[in-house]
Amino acid sequence: MRLAGINLHPVKSTAIRPVQEAYVGRAGLVGDREWMVVDGDGRLVSARELRELFTIVADTPATGGGADLRLSAPGHEPIELAIPTEGVRDVEMFNRPRMRVRPAGPEADAWLRRALGRDDLSLVWCHDPFRRVLDAEDGFTASDHAAFHDDSAVSLITDASVAAIDSWSEVTITAQRFRPSLLVEGAEEAFAEDGWKEIGIGPVRFRVVSAVPRCVMTTIDPVTLEKSKEPLRTLAVHRRWGGKTWAAVHLGVVHPGEIAVGDEVIVS
């Protein structure tokens, strides 16, 4: 098996940024979901309620010059931002304990509000992902951390699993629907990842924590922004237990390091 894809999402819920290589740290892939959009009350705004977030591309500026993040959107001039070094505020994700973050500043907020057509939006940066310890009840340990990820900092799905879901579905389903950190090719059967315990990719070692319960975000086409009942309707027939539907797995980072597309994937 080989690593077929590495995906970063620099700003939570914005367009997927495929990369050829990445560094995996204790809090996941460096550059992944380190920024987040919040409303006037400091609560997460995701593509679940504002699907236009998918149209915003967040990447690393090619020009340098002290900028750390570049945002672009159709019909708007791009903006380049530096990581904020001052100021703190509290924000909230999914009714979980509030997190302390740094605001990106008024220029970033104004750009977001123009691009997304809402006047209550702000951009924040997670300056210390190690302050967030993931839930032990979900199988995580005190060494598992994350920035603005829903649950684990790294998720994985095989192309065989995606192909199976696509074959069952009435509409085309691609891996992008599931926004995985890692896509693996060459698995002998669909959903083989459900039974894996440990995964080695290059020098990096992961442990499989649990399957991933899927939410309504998967029902939004990442290109057209059209919403349907798929793939949740299909998963409800083939992959439903415990009152939820499931696809992909959460990973915990055991040994950090560099990974690259094409790396061999070894499982046990």
From TrEMBL:
MOSC domain residues: 127-268
Domain of life where this protein originates: Bacteria
Signal peptide location: none
GO molecular function (one): pyridoxal phosphate binding
Matches recorded under Pfam families: MOSC (PF03473), MOSC_N (PF03476)
Name of this protein: MOSC domain-containing protein
